[in-house]
Amino acid sequence: MATSCATFYQRTMVVQNNIASGNFEQANKELEKDKKWPENNHRVLYFMNRGMVLFMMGEHEQSNHFFNQADYYTEDFQKNLGSEALALISNPMVRPYRPEDFEAIMIHYYKALNFIALKDFESALVECRRVNIRLQQFNEKYKAHKNKYARDAFAHNLMGIIYQAAGDYNNAFIAYRNALEIYEKDYSELFNVSPPQQLKEDLLISAHLIGFHNEVRFYEEQFDLSVSDIQRNEGDLVYIWMNGLGPVKAEWSLNLTNMGVSNGAMLFGSDELGTSFPIFLGNQSQSQQSQFKNLSIIRVAFPKYTERPPVYHGAVLRYNQAYYPLEMAQNINKIAFQSLQDRMFREVGSNLLRLATKQAMEQLSRHENQNLGAVVSIVNAMTEKADTRNWQSLPYALHYTRVPLPAGDHTLMLEQQRLGGGVSSDSVKVTIHPGETTFQIYHQLESR
Questions:
Q1: In this structure, is residue 200 part of a structural domain?
Q2: What is the pLDDT of residues 320-362, one digit of tens each?
Q3: Strands lying side by side in the sheet with 265-270
């Protein structure tokens, strides 16, 4: 098993290094020639990475083919009793990888962006709607410690942008209004992401275009902004800037002390966290229960995220003498940390049962045969690890802006601002058609 895990990380290291360096063709070749990864316990990560690499290569239909496979796998994920039993006496790495909830959501984002590139706005809207449907479905399954990331502001925002591009200003207004509420009530506190100024302008414009005069006056006063001050032109560019790379999973451990039996459960307490966790013993035999009670301290391994801060802290698009800041609309890094924390609180009991079962087996083995007990002890030490698999090629955050432009060919400048000073400039070429919105997406991969 240890060899298998090492091989998995060696494979992903080659792929991730190619992705991080922008060598997507080579990353795709590495993925394409690997015949085992699409069939093993990590297959969903193969589908997600393959979809992302093809997205970056501009192969949008092929990209969605692999994202569809990842989506089907995530939706149809069923617990395998054999792998669950094996995980109980080894570690969660033997299970088929089930994506974190936010990773499953990001599949729909990429599919939506692929459909936008293919000018299939209706299919893109379907994927945006599925973001919040899936979030609701996830949370309905959890009896306690529900996800705080329960609604997605940028999904509604992106829906509004797409509706506006299609000329459906009524639905655009509704989507923008929903996005504003979620930014104000959820995102500002959870992820330190305030409603973007561009969202406020788009909300005002859509209300104005459908003749919602009362709403225009209300939001003008709320935003301290006049609809007449908002720039408009023959067409516009919506530019989405993906910055950096999301976090990677590592491991941390926790020492827990046996606090005795209460109501058919053993309580293990943590001084570090200032709380206790129950292990229910109802299905255990008397001999197993007695071995559990003999445990004084157990150490359990959990996954944790390690942040990869981006090299650039912001960016603007410059056209002639005008500057258009790219505003953060989705902090994927913070969503990842919050999602994992919520999941760990839900699953700490099963992790404790796994550790206690392994140590109880060791004690039973020692009682039967000292040498066998020593072997079980070594195996337990070798197999105790957290599940550190994750989708490593996601961006750190999503930013966007809208640039009103006359019809024709234009060259804008993307100015990316480095932490510690310095600006990196790249030209952005775009063709604007009268009355149309043009989309461009760029992923700045550099991270620290």
A1: yes
A2: 999 999 999 999 999 999 999 998 877 765 666 656 666 666 5
A3: 275-280, 265-270, 248-262, 297-306
Query: Which three-class secondary structure state does DSSP give residue 245?
Result: coil
Domain span at residue 221? 151-159+176-230
CA–CA distance, 360 with 437 (Å, rounded to integer): 64
Name residue 212's amino acid.
F
- CA nearest 67: which of 31, 32, 101, 109? 109
Helix then strand then coil, in percent of the chain rounded to 5, is 50, 25, 25
Look up the pTM and report it.
0.85
In a domain, 220, yes or no: yes
* Residue ranges of the chain whose pLDDT lies below 50: 1-7, 78-83, 85-86, 88-89, 373-374, 376-378, 380-382
Any domain includes 181? yes
Angle, helix 2-20 to helix 43-56, in steps of 10 degrees: 10
Calculated CA dihedral for residues 103, 105, 108, 109, nearest 10 degrees: -80
Number of domains in the chain: 1
Tokens 């009793």 belong to residue: 81
